[in-house]
């Protein structure tokens, strides 16, 4: 198996792990009518739990300290993946269903590809970008078709929740791009670990301050445990390694299937429903992923020497 294929498989594994994040965050945070853990507690708690695990992991693997030039990228990864994305999504998920949130974040692959192309000086072909744009347009159209049904009970709060979800998408794209660049010169599992460890001075006090006072259901605690250990930690091991091996621009397109995986998980976990339109859009988006990964992607150096990417 070549590096690109291995990267795509690892990226798919990461996406599979991440696809449970929104449904389980919704389960952990509850709804407006039946609130559970607060969004701040979930965001800071998952960062603190994963940060402590990362500290022991770095010590056990005798991880070398990052080079001076790596720290800006580690900071960018931490701000996006440890703070921005978890905080914005955790707060928003109390006001929207997992299906709605999944389609709102469906444009993440295009944003990640844009960041990755800029950081890694990659030059995707026109056909590759066309697939990325078509896939993102499909999920955007799906979002508009279903937004009313998915969030009609949330009133004006939906506007703010959607804005938070878009901010979360931007944070994730930046962190994915920065983390992938780091994973090209240091161990992929060490990338997220260092990003989590440097966040501990903020995440630990924040989670203690936001500790829940009321009675929380076991389901909410189990959901919190998943997003802390898998979404915040183990999933990134596979994801950043996949981006480093297969290329950020190409592997990021696997994310196009994540919204529909999240919807499928939301059915048994949250009792949400799928219809024929959802299935049709899902198949169309998955088709763009397989077409897009066959499109050429080259580096700036190859472009300069006249090699067709």
UniProtKB/TrEMBL annotation:
GO cellular component: a single term: membrane
UniProt topology in membrane: Multi-pass membrane protein
Segments crossing the lipid bilayer: 40-61, 73-93, 99-119, 126-145, 157-179, 191-214, 220-240
Sequence ranges assigned to domain EamA in this UniProt record: 6-135, 160-291
UniProt subcellular location: Membrane
Alphabetical keyword list: Membrane, Transmembrane, Transmembrane helix
Pfam families in UniProt: EamA
Family note: Belongs to the EamA transporter family.
Protein name: DMT family transporter
Organism: Rhodoferax sediminis
């Amino acid at each position: 198996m070549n590096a690109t294929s291995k990267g795509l498989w690892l990226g798919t594994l990461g996406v599979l792990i991440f696809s449970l994040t929104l449904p389980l965050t919704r389960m952990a945070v509850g709804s407006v009518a039946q609130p559970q853990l607060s969004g701040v507690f979930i965001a800071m708690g998952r960062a603190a739990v994963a940060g402590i695990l990362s500290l022991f992991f770095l010590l056990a693997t005798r991880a070398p300290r990052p080079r001076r030039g790596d720290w800006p990228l580690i900071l960018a990864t931490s701000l996006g993946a440890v703070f921005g994305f978890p905080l914005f999504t955790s707060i928003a998920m109390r006001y929207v269903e997992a299906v709605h949130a999944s389609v709102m974040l469906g444009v993440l692959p295009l944003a990640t590809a844009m960041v990755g192309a800029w950081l890694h000086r990659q030059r995707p072909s026109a056909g590759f970008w066309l697939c990325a744009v078509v896939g993102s347009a499909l999920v955007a159209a799906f979002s508009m078709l279903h937004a009313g049904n998915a969030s009609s009970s949330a009133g004006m709060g939906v506007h703010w929740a959607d804005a938070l979800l878009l901010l979360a998408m931007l944070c994730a794209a930046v962190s994915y791009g920065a983390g992938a660049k780091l994973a090209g010169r240091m161990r992929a599992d060490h990338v997220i670990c260092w990003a989590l460890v440097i966040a501990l001075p903020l995440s630990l006090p924040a989670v203690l301050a936001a500790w829940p006072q009321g009675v929380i259901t076991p389901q909410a605690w189990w959901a919190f445990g998943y997003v802390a250990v898998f979404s915040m930690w183990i999933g990134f091991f596979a994801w950043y390694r996949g981006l480093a091996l297969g290329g950020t621009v190409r592997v990021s397109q696997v994310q196009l299937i994540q919204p529909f995986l999240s919807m499928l998980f939301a059915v048994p976990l949250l009792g949400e429903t799928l219809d024929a339109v959802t299935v049709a859009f899902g198949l169309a988006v998955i088709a763009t992923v397989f077409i897009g990964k066959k499109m050429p992607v080259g580096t700036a150096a190859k472009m300069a020497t006249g090699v067709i990417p």
